[in-house]
Batch of 2 targets.
Target 1
Amino acid sequence: MSPRRPTRTVPTVLLPGAGVGHGGQWQSWLADHLTDAGRIVVSPKPAGHILTDRVAALRACLADFPDDGFDVVAHSVTCLLWLHHAATLADSPDGPRPARVALVAPPSPEQPMPPFESFYPVPLNIDAVRQAADGTVLVGGDQDPLCPEGVATAYGAPLKMATTVIPGAGHIDADAGFGPWPAVLDWCGRDNLAFIA
């Protein structure tokens, strides 16, 4: 059964995890489906592994969007990028706010992930995350090798954020069977914030 055609029309800013950019991961699958449905899908230009360069590339990517006129879907280490972006906005608010953000399978904030050491420490600022978007959801697997303490413990509790935990989903990547992922396409196609696994 193929997923239903998305009805939401705002652009999606896709922040793929490390090493993603070719076929095989759900991010590529999602981009293809949204594009086929007439949706605009953009990603920041590659900017290496240095946090300041990546934040600058993200802000440049977002600059032309209107407030509340786009969604963001981040996976893995780019969830940390979004949290840093949110923290910088709290200090110097400029740039548009997305309507919704989905943070998917962020790696542990306690175990720096090579070669992204500059992304640590991870800012877990409740107010900054709430101010950076109209709404943010957190999604993770229950046996993620990159977040052994669990996404609800590592991020859900300190950010006071409802968390969707998907049984057996690991890091929600191709290795865990997430090439096609209809649930994320469904989220992108609905107007409400809740993520239905």
Target 2
Amino acid sequence: MNILILNWRDIKNPKSGGAEILTHELARRLVRDGHSVTQFSALFENAKKEEIVDGVRFIRNGVPDVRRFFSSVHFKAFLYYRKNNSQFDLIIDEVHGIPFFTPLYSRRKKLALICEVAGNIWDISFKFPFNIIGKTIERIYHIFYQNVRIVTISDSSKKDLSKIGFKKEQIDVLTLGCDVPIIKKLPKKNEECTLIFVSRITKSKGIEDAVKSISEIKKIIPNIKLLILGRGEERYVEKIKMMIHDMGLEKNIMMLGFVSEQEKRNYLEKSHILIVPSRKEGWGLTIHEAGSRGTPAIGYNVEGLRDVIVDNVNGIICKNNSHADIAKNALLLFSNEKLYRKLQMGAISERKKYTWDRTYREFLEVLGS
């Protein structure tokens, strides 16, 4: 089978996230099983316009910002498909707020992969009128996808999709995997109490709440540390650095930027707690990455995170979704060794349930149906 994947980013994009990891894990297994897979995604700085990674052919053109309509990856994908449509048997149309609208121009078999419904993230990430336009499109595009099988990554996302118009029986949920090796015994943590934040540096990921929580914890534990792993838009990163400076937290917070996978694993292993104050997620992949290294999580009670954090098993779900709540729960774990050990063991136990081979098997069942 010849498969075309349309996604705004690919696995090599510096801004790629969990959705791109999922896409690539599925794509490379499809290639392994004898299928031909082409992924069309946006260009990024220093990217090759064409290359093959793990047998998957990447074609890059356009920008991920749909506001630049004729230059957008969505429009470029339409042009590419119109020229090459006879090559493909199946299209995987990935939706990140805005779909590729493939039902409007293709009669080929299609599957839509929708990791999350953006919802109020439009208001956090975009100014008027683009937030209103984005929310409007998200509420109505299901009209064009009524005969398309939908795949998502959590029960929360399935509920959100049904709220914006998709039929429940139209939606399948994949159980996401994790490839971070599981430690064989509980690791030795840093001597200083250490929190870690692993994500893109954006407002919707809750980085400002992460910083504010350290100011609260510092009142009780003066040498508290927060490691921030990830990158973001330069202007916003500078704003966070200024925020840290203004709050007098330079000695407590280290912004480490982009790090390699091995470095990330080492930091997760040495840190005591992963904090995830995101406003919304499709699925919290970093929670199981941390769990692989014996590190429990504290996260907000929002879509996606509540699907991954089992309260008082592999972490703690916040009750009030505030920086004060993060601080309170972190202080609880730092002061209660028995509870902390229980969550460490729970984090490892929960992680063992999730593999990419399991995800792929579930995906093949969807294709078969």
